[in-house]
Structures are given as structure tokens and as C-alpha cells.
Write the C-alpha cells for this entry.
Amino acid sequence: MQNQTNYYGKRNLFNPSSTDSFRLSRSKIDLFLNCPRCFYLDQKLGVSRPAGYPFSLNAAVDTLLKKEFDYYRKRQEPHPLMVSHEIDAVPFAHEDLEKWRDSLRRGIDYIHPETNFRITGGIDDVWINPAKELFIVDYKATAKNSEVNLDAEWQKGYKRQMEIYQWLFRRNGFAVSPIGYFVYANGRLDLDMFSGRLEFNLKILPYEGNDSWIEKKLTEARECLSAGTPPEAAPECEYCCYAEKYPRAG
């Protein structure tokens, strides 16, 4: 059976003999890229990495930004931030927008015929230009004194995220620009008082995506899950390193 529960209580584990499509989220693709062993344990055996802490403030910024851009979506007008960054577009009005935003239960999806994976992802926003070309948009929040950018090594995950979303929309028949946008909210640390109020500087960062890597990695992910034993851990995986060292401690 495709859907099964083990003693960890996890469902929807990969079964190589099943003919049903297997749901693979954008975040699980990133897990495979970070550590194939963790990916195998999670998606085939139901042994997940320990859960991280929820980023409640980031979620609040995300919710408020969606409300703000939805205000201009209803009017089919550009957000003032789009105007100041000279982006010739308006927020895209589509009946499936709320579905696309629901990363946990729905999202935008596509069944990849070569692997029979149902790839899913939940987007933050989509804009459209006069040529009817879509811009995929992702919201990010941080708090630091320096200017926000996309130059850090760990932000490669952000870029892959954008590229998977672009790929999904293309596979669903939409014309998608290679340019995507990150709306970055940077919490101000230069104020003298908190006064029960957080203030943010907002900036839009463009990114030119390239989704040519996705098909190959989906095939590799299928091969990984179809193997009879877990692959080697990624050398830099801190979870696998901890698991290896823990029994030897003491």
C-alpha cells in the first residue's frame, strides 16, 4: 500500500512497487539535495529529522505581506514597492491563488511522468506583467544591520525554491519569466526604543532562475528511494554526524 503508518506515525511513505503517484514537496527535494541519506530515512522509512522551532514572527510578516499585496490585487494596481523598484507588473488575480498558497494540503502540483512523483509547492505570491508573463514571488524576513542580499551560501536553498516554483508553474501551462522576486523584510535594529512595535525596511531582490537541474535530480531521487538500503550520508550533514557520534559518547 502506498499510504502506510509505521511506529513513528508517519504516513505516505515511498513504496517502489506502487503505481500511485508519490507526493514529493519542494522542501523534500531540498532535503535530498542536502543529504540523500536523511531523505531516504524520511521518505521511505519515516525517520524524520528533529523538527525545528516555528518562526512565528516570520509567519506574521508573511501573513501581513499577503494581506497587503492582496489589497492591490483586488484593485489590479501595482504595490507602491513595485513602483519604486520599477517593476512593470501587478499582483496576479487567479481563482487558484489560495490553493497555491496552501503548502501543507494543496499548493501547485505536477505529476512528473518519468518518476511518477507528484511535485508540490506552496508559493507566497505571483505577479503578472503586461505581456501576460508571470513573476514568481517569495517573501522573506530577517533582522540585521547590513543590507539584505542573496549572496550567502545558505541562501542557495532560497534560489532552488524559486526555481522549483517556476518549474511547477511552467509545467502547469503558464508563461513564466526567468526573473523571480524576493520581497525581503529587514527588521530595523537602529531604533532607540522598541515601544511594542517592530519596524521593517522592505526591499525587492530580483533573481534569475534556471530550472534545468530539476529533472535530473528528480530521477536521482527516485533511484535513491528505490534502493534497498540507505545511501551514504552527506559529509556536511550535521544530523547524520550527530547520529553517528551519539552512541559512542560516554
About this structure: Helices lie at 26-34, 36-45, 56-75, 80-84, 97-101, 156-171, 214-226, 238-245.
